[in-house]
């Protein structure tokens, strides 16, 4: 099946060439970061996690969201999802690969990644996060490849796949739960110190992931000779709608808890993000845009006739994706550092090299996804011909 990755139209190779150009510029910036250090980024002593960790946090959710397709198909035999299950699993593989690249970029020195392997510390949440993320990626590669191969040969999947599928479902939940615990377990950071943070992470994951998968399915439908299926897209849109409503509800709960209790530490981070604090408000336009996009998407998705229209659905999914990217990315990560435990306000803005390294990682993820999807779509086209 790997040979199918070498076939493609001119526009496909143009897309791949563009990705390599972006990756080349990013590699040059990363070499400079290795030489000079993390001082070329906007991070510092007061805001020590920035754009890299924001992307990591968001992409773990995208990876975990594959479970909303895997679970109905494999556990409840929902046939319509059979057309897009492999796409969801390959999306999870690309997302986890990007997560690893962002962690390496954030650590400054890549060799430090091996310290976790050489000196495992089961008492650390980071150790478990690394463990479940890598296990989840391997499981999705094995499952998707085995199922796609069996589908191509028109034979049942190998027997060993089923136990792996069952194991991958709780693992998908655990990767984002453990990521939430990385934040919620840190005292002195009141925006993160919330018992509902893991639930917020899962709700946002089941919003952004399906939104991206729907957009990819619509692109595939337009550019290839294979149709992912109307029924699968419509059910995925329904799941996305419920998850988005849950995510908005959880955000309102956070506001109620902070402002009704009138505890200053709980209020200040939310004030900084959405209203500005003591004359500081770099993220206010972004967070208000996130809310506006979420509201627009909610209105479009809860109206059945609008949701069934592919053009409107694409707009709604794009709005959901960027809304969650802002809120769960920069908003959550940077907002947790402002104000500091000493009530000092130090704002953060990503630098040019930081942005280009981020673009490069996204380009690498897009390249991985393009290759995997080329193989999957070629097999699907063969079967439908």
Topology readout:
Elements: H1 10-36, H2 51-64, H3 67-76, H4 85-107, H5 113-118, H6 125-153, H7 161-184, H8 197-223, H9 230-261, H10 264-274, H11 284-302, H12 304-308, H13 310-335, H14 352-384
Describe the model.
- The protein is built from 14 helices and no strands.
- By secondary structure, the protein is mostly helical.
- The protein is 74% helix and 0% strand.
- It has helices at 10-36, 51-64, 67-76, 85-107, 113-118, 125-153, 161-184, 197-223, 230-261, 264-274, 284-302, 304-308, 310-335, 352-384.
- It has a single domain, classed as Formate dehydrogenase/DMSO reductase fold (Up-down Bundle).
User: Mean of the pLDDT scores?
Assistant: 90
The top-level CATH class is: Mainly Alpha
Annotated CATH homologous superfamily: Formate dehydrogenase/DMSO reductase domain
Query: What number of domains?
Result: 1
Query: What share of residues is helical?
Result: over 70%
Strand content: under 5%
SSE-based structural type? mainly alpha
**Helical run tally:** 14
Short characterization:
With 385 residues, the protein is mostly helical. It has helices at 10-36, 51-64, 67-76, 85-107, 113-118, 125-153, 161-184, 197-223, 230-261, 264-274, 284-302, 304-308, 310-335, 352-384.
Keyphrases for this structure?
Formate dehydrogenase/DMSO reductase fold; mainly alpha; 14 helices; globular; 385 residues; 0% strand
């Amino acid at each position: 099946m790997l040979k199918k990755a070498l076939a493609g139209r001119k526009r496909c190779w143009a897309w791949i060439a563009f990705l390599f150009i972006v990756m080349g510029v990013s590699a040059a910036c990363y070499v400079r970061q290795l030489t000079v250090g993390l001082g070329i980024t906007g991070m510092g002593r007061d805001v020590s996690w920035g754009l890299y960790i924001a992307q990591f946090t968001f992409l773990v959710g995208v990876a975990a969201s594959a479970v909303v397709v895997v679970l109905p198909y494999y556990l409840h035999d929902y046939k319509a999802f059979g057309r897009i299950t492999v796409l969801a699993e390959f999306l999870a593989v690309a997302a986890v690969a990007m997560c690893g690249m962002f962690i390496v970029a954030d650590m400054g020195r890549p060799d430090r990644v091996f310290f976790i392997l050489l000196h495992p510390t089961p008492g650390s949440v980071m150790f478990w996060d690394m463990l479940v993320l890598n296990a989840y990626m391997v499981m999705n590669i094995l499952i998707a490849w085995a199922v796609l191969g069996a589908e191509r040969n028109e034979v049942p999947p190998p027997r060993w796949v089923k136990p792996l599928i069952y194991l991958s479902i709780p693992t998908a939940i655990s990767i984002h739960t453990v990521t939430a615990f990385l934040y919620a377990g840190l005292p002195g950071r009141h925006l993160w110190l919330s018992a509902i943070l893991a639930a917020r992470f899962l709700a946002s994951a089941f919003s952004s992931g399906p939104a991206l998968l729907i957009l990819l399915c619509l692109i595939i439908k337009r550019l290839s000779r294979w149709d992912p299926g109307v029924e699968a897209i419509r059910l995925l849109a329904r799941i996305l709608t419920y998850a988005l409503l849950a995510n908005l509800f959880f955000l309102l709960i956070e506001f109620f808890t902070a402002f009704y209790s009138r505890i200053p530490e709980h209020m200040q981070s939310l004030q900084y993000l959405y209203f500005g604090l003591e004359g500081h408000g770099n993220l206010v336009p972004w967070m208000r845009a996130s809310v506006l996009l979420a509201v627009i998407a909610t209105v479009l998705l809860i109206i059945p006739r609008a949701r069934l229209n592919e053009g409107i659905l694409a707009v709604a999914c794009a709005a959901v994706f960027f809304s969650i990217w802002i809120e769960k990315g920069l908003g959550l990560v940077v907002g947790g550092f402002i104000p500091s435990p000493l009530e000092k306000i130090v704002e953060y803005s990503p630098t040019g090299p930081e942005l280009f390294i981020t673009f490069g990682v996204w380009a690498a993820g897009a390249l991985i996804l393009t290759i995997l999807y080329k193989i999957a779509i070629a097999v699907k086209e063969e079967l439908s011909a």
